[in-house]
Write a structure and sequence with these properties.
Elements: H1 18-27, E1 31-35, H2 55-61, E2 68-71, H3 82-90, H4 95-98, E3 105-107, E4 112-114, E5 120-121, H5 127-134, H6 136-151, H7 157-167, E6 168-169, E7 176-178, H8 180-186, H9 190-213, E8 220-225, E9 227-230, E10 236-238, E11 250-255, H10 260-276, H11 294-304, E12 312-317, E13 321-327, E14 330-336, H12 340-353, E15 358-362, E16 376-380, E17 383-388, E18 404-406, H13 409-426
Parallel strand pairs: 1-2, 1-12, 2-3, 12-15, 15-18
Antiparallel strand pairs: 3-4, 4-5, 6-7, 7-11, 8-11, 9-10, 13-14, 16-17
Helix pairs in contact: 1-13, 2-13, 6-7, 6-9, 7-8, 10-12, 11-12
């Protein structure tokens, strides 16, 4: 097939045409890149404190200044925040904000905003909510110590304390229990690890109940990563460990409204203000006041955003799951993943407004975490072809289309991104 007859990227599935992806980023003036972080521009690791990022990639993002924003469930600040990773990468914590090396955009699912120079805020968040969140990490540590005592874990004191400290993430807006280290330490003891998953789930439910007693019933929710989608009530479904797969490793106690799809609208609102001087949703709009329903979000974009100024959106993520299970003798697909909904929203905004938005998937299955399925690649006529995505092969009706994929993981994606940045600067 010649370049003239090839389908545009937004009409393809599992495309490996990275040259055309680079051209898209290079040549599109009215462009908005919305990108996840872990697994996309740095490797997935068991201990978040060991994450590393390439300074060359960080510098490349500046070529897209005003056109590139991150959207992550992690945080910008704190000991485990992305800012610390960037400061270590450059070796000069003072120079990073001065030179604009922080990654701009939304963290904590959409409720923590940061500029490239490190100006930070929590739009729509109250002091009472932040105070409640501040005591969650210690509650996680207490629960882990009680779990270790009742289960009589075969871990020496130093190893146990290391697991506990690396598992309680003291995020300001999204304190998290990250069980990656425990999963490794417990090795093949799947029953004990599943018990730990249920203990963390129970703690999260207890915290929600306590928040309600303090008048904060509508303030928080729990995000399980990865997960098996949502149940009928809208609650995320925990993924219990099976076989070699760790299942849900992150139990994030988050501010309600801190969901990535709502963050897409907050970023789009900000982008329009940059280009047109006005906010389609108002200057005070934040992810906390956005609708949670997919169709309502798409409709809000159609109703309030001038289509003449609408950018081409490129969404980039690495966590998309699905699993087909049998319910009453019938196959039912459970779809989840922390990037699924924001990528799906970008896809549908493009389809509704007839814009060629591109959904980009980075295969992070090669990292330290064994909780995601790799892309399936076959050789056809001497060329690699992706024949199956990260979800269950039996899920043939998944509405999300992954237009461009990077089987080589974050290294391959970052290389393409940096090439596009160099070409955009030279244009």
């Amino acid at each position: 097939m010649t370049s003239a007859t090839r389908l545009p990227l937004h009409e393809q599935a599992f495309s490996l045409e990275h040259d055309r992806f680079i051209d898209l980023l290079t040549q599109t003036e009215n462009l908005l890149i919305i990108q996840d972080l872990d697994g996309v521009c740095m490797g997935l690791v068991k201990d978040p404190l060991t994450r590393q990022i390439d300074p060359a990639y960080v510098t490349a993002t500046q070529a897209f200044d005003g056109h590139f924003y991150v959207l992550t469930n992690g945080e910008h600040i704190g000991e485990r925040g992305v800012n610390k990773i960037i400061e270590r990468a450059f070796g000069d914590a003072q120079a990073v904000p001065e030179q604009g090396h922080y990654l701009p955009g939304l963290a904590a699912g959409g409720v923590q905003w940061q500029t490239r120079h490190g100006k930070l805020s929590h739009p729509g968040v109250s002091e009472a909510e932040l105070a409640f969140l501040a005591q969650v990490p210690e509650r996680i540590r207490q629960s882990l110590r009680e779990f270790a005592r009742t289960q009589a874990l075969d871990l020496d004191a130093a190893m146990l304390e290391s697991c506990i400290q690396s598992s309680a993430l003291e995020n300001v807006a999204s304190p998290t229990a990250n069980l990656n280290t425990f999963h490794g330490a417990l090795a093949a003891d799947q029953d004990t690890y599943q018990t730990l998953q249920r203990v963390m789930q129970s703690l999260m439910e207890t915290l929600l109940a306590e928040a309600a007693e303090q008048g904060l019933a509508d303030s928080f929710f729990v995000h399980y990563a990865p997960n098996h989608g949502r149940d009928e009530s809208g609650q995320e479904i925990i993924w219990l460990s099976q076989g070699d797969e760790s299942g849900t490793t992150d139990f994030q106690f988050m501010l309600r409204g801190g969901i990535k799809e709502a963050g897409v609208l907050a970023l789009l609102n900000h982008y329009y203000a940059q280009r047109t001087g006005s906010y389609p949703l108002g200057e005070s709009f934040s992810a906390r006041v956005a609708p949670h329903d997919h169709d309502a979000l798409v409709q809000l974009v159609q109703d309030r955003f001038d289509p003449a100024a609408m950018p081409l959106l490129v969404g980039v993520g690495d966590t998309v799951t699905s699993k087909v299970i049998e319910v009453d003798g019938q196959p039912v697909a459970k779809r989840g993943g922390s990037d699924r909904n924001f990528l799906y929203l970008i896809q549908d905004i493009g389809r509704r407004l007839k814009i060629g938005n591109v959904v980009t998937y980075v295969d992070s299955s090669g990292g330290e975490l064994k909780n995601r399925r790799a892309l399936t690649i076959e050789q056809r006529q001497g060329q690699p072809v992706v024949v199956a995505g990260p979800g269950d092969p039996a899920d043939t009706a998944d509405p999300l289309t992954l237009n461009v994929v990077f089987p080589g993981g974050y290294q391959q994606y970052c290389a393409a991104f940096q090439t596009a940045a160099a070409q955009r600067r030279a244009a």
